[in-house]
Amino acid sequence: MVERVHPGRPHGDPDLAGAGARRVEPGQMQDVGAAELLVHDRFHEAILGAAEPGGQSAARFRGTVSGGCQTRPMTERWAVAAEDGGGALLAPLGRDGTPAGPVVAEPDLVEAVRSRPDVVRWVWRSTAEIYPRLLAAGVRVERCYDIECAELLLLGHAGRLGEPRSAAAALARLDNGPVPPDPPARSAEPGAQSSLFEPSSGTGVPFEGLLRVYADQLRRHDTAEHPDRMRLLTASESAGMLVAAEMHRAGLPWRADVHQELLNGLLGERYAGGGEPRRLAELADEVSAAFGRRVRPDLPADVVKAFTQAGIPVKSTRRWELEGLDHPAVEPLIAYKKLYRIWTAHGWSWLQDWVREGRFRPEYQPGGTVSGRWTTNGGGALQIPKVIRQAVVADEGWRLVVADADQMEPRVLAAISRDRSLMEVAGHDGDLYKALSDRAFSGDREHAKLALLGAVYGQTSGDGLKNLAALRRRFPLAVAYVDDAARAGEEGRVVRTWLGRTSPPVALAGQDEEAGIPQEDPEDDRGAGAGSGGGTARARGRFTRNFVVQGSAADWALLLLAALRRTLFEQGLRAQLVFFQHDEVIVHCPAEETAAVAEAIRAAGELAGRTAFGETPVRFPFTTAVVERYSDAK
Fold first, then answer.
1. CATH classification for the domain delimited by 256-356, as one of 1.10.1740, 1.10.10, 1.20.1060, 1.10.260
2. Residue 81 pairs with which residues in a beta bridge?
3. CB atoms within 10 A of CB 631
4. Model-level pTM?
5. Which of 42, 223, 324, 386 gets the most CB atoms within 10 Å of its CB?
């Protein structure tokens, strides 16, 4: 049974916004008065703590953070570095990032952190190096500053994405020395200790050098296009690293016995020697029989060749292309591909490797894509088939609170474009596409959806072009925002998300189809010629058009996670954040906490919207379900 939760719409938080507070747009902090600066600081404090040192807001209110009529001291900031043998070096930091006291050597890293509960933001080289050790010992850190995360963001902001981002590389650049390459990415080892437990050896960064890198990063934040936004991005990315480590530690509840039953029912018996299970073998025989010769359905080239020989030229074996073909091999081939994916990605080997003691513990990679979306290092956590989600079962007496952000990216476009008409449409908790269709598409929801997603993802031919024209008439600022981003990409310029994450100079492959919209035929691009009007330029334009929206949505999601993490802890709940992908979160909690968790998610989404984009009418609602099985939430 699915229990739907519909939290009430917020009526505003006077402690955060204040009566009559004017709208504050992040990135324009230097141009507004002290009251507006204070409002932004209080949003920021509510999620991530005090603003980073060096910002105008931090300088103006140095020493206190307001809370109504009371004031309290600014939180402490300490640097810590792991030493060989389990020890640590520590130092308190001043506002410029330099030591504000002597460097202290402690024999035990965990005890060094545990014994300083008043330190709210720890500055360290890498969350992956230190935080899992603390979690294993039961030590939770409220906030951190991840130097290597910050370096990656700052390099990107300077148009130098792709250069080594390690602390050692940053120090070498400071000293005008040879820059060492980043160590190769470590693959996760299923069934073994996660590579989140990154060794400290080989980093080659003395503690004094680490502090110099940190101080330099503070200065570089000051010179960013929008310093306040960039500081917020770095703080939220660092918070995301804490969330990733905690989700790995908690694990997603997983019933191995249910998974086994599902595989047996879907795939049939396993054959000795690791060959294809019975059902796949049967489907492969059906495909071969349809072609009249032996065909390997697991080899796309073999399938394409077979169709060509049958007089049906195809470019790929993608499902959307196969479904349009009239041939007896299509049905068993599509069925084979679906089951083959389950067998190879989430089959018996996966179950043996990745599920331990009733938990699946993927290794999350915050900012794993250039747009800021998360990835995982192995395990396929972000591609769990719906049928396999039946194995994700809450513990006895517990529930899964599954929350999907409703039409997140169109709402983000409304917020970042400042298009008043689109913000008005996005200012309600209901179906955004339905509201859009009533405004501009004569009530045709499907056309409204395709128009808006086409504007974001670059579908600008055929019906997409007609829909875009209708959208442009009603929402000119929103369409102009993504059009400008596309033009920048076509001209070889970089673009930024709202908080400042910067695109690479050249678009990466595979981004165009993330929305599930069929893209323009590559043949059309190849015929367009070279140069700024050619296929490469058009592909860059589609990428940057999408980047500013998808990346800004990732900015919002980071703040959502940070706010939710903090709320669950401060309310003393036993609830655990156990899963996140793009626009969906799962919290595992006792049954009696479900209402509080659902409300915490709703409030976190609204607070994240205000923190990222300022006071806009845009709402960020969720469809929230309380279930025992993940599969029941959809």
1. 1.20.1060
2. 89
3. 18
4. 0.86
5. 42
